[in-house]
Specification:
Elements: H1 7-26, H2 29-49, H3 65-88, H4 93-97, H5 100-105, H6 111-145, H7 151-178, H8 182-211, H9 221-231, H10 235-244, H11 257-281
Helix pairs in contact: 1-6, 2-3, 2-6, 3-6, 3-7, 3-8, 3-10, 6-7, 6-11, 7-8, 7-10, 7-11, 10-11
């Protein structure tokens, strides 16, 4: 059994299975739809937002390549995270229905290792085309602004993007492991995405009104601080706060960096551990 395999052997097995899972996702028909979505949103957004002749809302700066990348992150949240849903909403539930999961669980490998392989495979398949679209988008920014983001800025943006896709991969696999059929898999997968992408703004507004924070004043710093605290409980919010942390001036978040990174660490650990625990107890 896997308990008698050396740690190095277990890591090698997990990485091998993760590469196999990633290849399966990358070769699927869904990947064509995802790649089209990513290049439309991220590359198109990068080109449009870096256009010196474009007129954006006052107060939104696009003076540097990194400021453009920060705005492009909104398109990442709309397209790349939806791509994780597209690839992973039935990653576990479909295997249960086709009895593939029963075969997988009968193999001499720890369920925890198998869960990690599924997670890394889905994350890799979602991140690679997102990274490719981002790099093409950076060239679009350069063609418009005649400037490149620094290597540190680009690495930071890609690192934060990798984190949010890992969080969504964990959430989607957890939702898929809870689903009993295709219908519930779609409901849980899309529902969790919509909660953090669209409904979370409503959650913030309702909570603000309950405690008496004025939402109508856009210059209200009390509401800004409150919304940042609420954003710590959303993967999208933490992603935006991470990217805002490298901005300068009034655009920087009110929260200290340590709280933002603590939230990022918890979002990295908790959903992944919940999925692993669920996978270890799942019945095929």
């Amino acid at each position: 059994m896997s308990e008698h395999i050396s740690p190095r052997g277990r890591v090698a097995t997990v990485l091998t299975l993760a590469r196999f899972e990633a290849r399966q996702h990358l070769k699927s028909h869904r990947m064509f739809a995802l790649a089209s979505l990513l290049f439309l949103f991220i590359v198109g957004g990068s080109y449009g937002l870096s256009d010196p002749n474009s007129r954006l809302t006052p107060g939104i700066a696009t003076d540097t390549p990194y400021e453009v990348l920060f705005l492009v992150s909104l398109f990442v949240l709309l397209s790349a995270t939806l791509g994780v849903v597209l690839l992973g909403f039935d990653a576990i539930s479909r295997r249960r229905l086709t009895k593939e999961l029963a075969i997988e669980l009968s193999q001499p490998i720890s369920r925890s290792d198998l869960a990690l392989a599924h997670l890394l495979g889905l994350w890799t398949a979602a991140f690679l085309p997102t990274m490719a679209a981002t790099l093409v988008g950076v060239t679009m920014v350069h063609s418009q602004m005649d400037a490149w983001p620094t290597l540190a800025e680009l690495a930071y943006f890609l690192g934060a993007t990798a984190l949010v896709l890992f969080w969504y991969s964990s959430i989607q696999l957890l939702a898929s492991s809870l689903a009993r059929d295709l219908g519930s898999a779609v409901t849980l997968g899309v529902g969790s995405w919509m909660l953090f992408t669209f409904v979370w703004l409503l959650v913030t507004a309702v909570l603000a009104s309950i405690i008496g924070v004025d939402m109508t004043d856009l210059e209200n710093q009390r509401f800004d601080r409150f919304s940042e605290i609420i954003d710590l409980f959303s993967p999208n919010g933490v992603y935006q706060l991470l990217l805002e942390d490298r901005l300068t001036g009034d655009a920087t978040p009110h929260l200290e960096s340590r709280f933002i990174w603590l939230a990022a660490a918890l979002w990295t650990l908790i959903p992944a551990l919940l999925f692993t625990a669920r996978f270890r107890s799942i019945r095929p």
